[in-house]
Amino acid sequence: MKISDVLRHKGSEVITIKPGETVSTLLALLAEHRIGAVVVSADGTTVDGIVSERDVVLHLHSTGTSVLDGPVSRIMTSDVTTGSADDDVADLAGTMTEERVRHVPIVDADGRLTAIVSIGDIVKHRLSELQSERDQLRDYISH
């Protein structure tokens, strides 16, 4: 199975934030969309970084509440693991596990942002696959 299969069910909407926006604005986006990470993009099509709720917590702990008024660029991860729609689901899941990342932006061949997948999206897709296989086996056995 390919990441494109996951995206067919999940959709390809990506919430982005500009690097100069404040961390407080980021928190509002995370809460509004009930998500755990946002792609940082100056133009909405390139991946400049990624910032998660974990990044906010780590910087709140080390810096204090002043981080809330600072720019997202100060706390984002710049070295972002990305994937493509053609990637194998199991391979990307392995990469996410090895690199300890929970969100991977999906880019096209030109590097343009097209979607984002979370480890939760991948687990949900795999569970759906397993249930479908179980149902097919049950139907096969009962006939």
TrEMBL record:
The CBS domain, residue ranges: 7-67, 76-132
Domain of life: Bacteria
Protein name per its UniProtKB record: CBS domain-containing protein
PANTHER family linked to this entry: CBS DOMAIN-CONTAINING PROTEIN, CBS DOMAIN-CONTAINING PROTEIN CBSX3, MITOCHONDRIAL
The entry's keywords: CBS domain
Pfam families per UniProt: CBS
Cross-referenced InterPro entries: CBS_dom, CBS_dom_sf, CBSX3_CBS_dom, Diverse_CBS-Domain
Organism of this sequence: Terrabacter lapilli
